[in-house]
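Sample intake — 7-carboxy-7-deazaguanine synthase
Collected from: Desulforhabdus amnigena
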Amino acid sequence: MALAVNEIFYSIQGESTYAGWPCIFVRLSGCNLRCSYCDTQYAYDEGEGMAIPDILNRLQLIDCGLVEVTGGEPLIQEETPELITRLIDHGYRVLLETNGSQDISRVDNRCIKIVDFKCPSSGESDSNDLTNVERLTEQDEVKCVIADREDYIFAREIARRTLCGCSRANTIHFSPVFGLLEPKQLTEWILEDRLRVRLNLQLQKIIWSPDRRGV
Ligand SMILES: C[S@@+](CC[C@H](N)C(=O)[O-])C[C@H]1O[C@@H](n2cnc3c(N)ncnc32)[C@H](O)[C@@H]1O
Ligand SMILES: Nc1nc2[nH]cc(C(=O)O)c2c(=O)[nH]1
Ligand code: SF4
Ligand SMILES: [Mg+2]
């Protein structure tokens, strides 16, 4: 059995509560969605087959204890939960970035799940499985990527639903679609509403050229 892997690279975590930490990224191939703004379209079908021991060997050469499994959509591959458990058993702290359409209860409870519920401008908000809100643990995080006011209002409802006691998660990230919504505008909306969410700017796009791969 093998996983379709698009790329493995070492960089600075640019998103989530772990932003700023050195991190290894395992980007899996394939996605069930087509978000209008997706910055990772190259992962839709490019990739090579790698068995879990090959992935572990590659990571061992890098020497970093934090790993993020991302994509594409990592949870559309049947073997991804097994990869995550094996990484954790080998001592890695594992983050999973997933698009909110897949049942996260198949994933090891020790994994920190970052669940990105899609807003209307993505064209994929009907794909959200909002029962995932109830499946989150205290260490998991919710994320919404926002392009305009309509997205913001949609995300505000998800934030309220997450914080109202329907969920054990208490970290919610609001991130502007890069180049489409000014961070200043999103910040003003958050402050105006006294919303208990975190502004997330993609550090990698500030540090490097925004369309650079592998960072
Ligand atoms: C490429 S996706 C891979 C993981 C999963 N498919 C998902 O959507 O969460 C990783 C993250 O990048 C975000 N993202 C993609 N394109 C973006 C853009 N143009 N601006 C801001 N965030 C973006 C996604 O919303 C997601 O949170
Ligand atoms: N530096 C960096 N941090 C990230 N955090 C989440 C990413 C992703 O594409 O899932 C990502 C990415 O592509 N690069
Ligand atoms: S779910 Fe993630 S990888 Fe898939 S299209 Fe949307 S942003 Fe891109
Ligand atoms: Mg990325």
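Post-analysis note: The mean pLDDT is 97.
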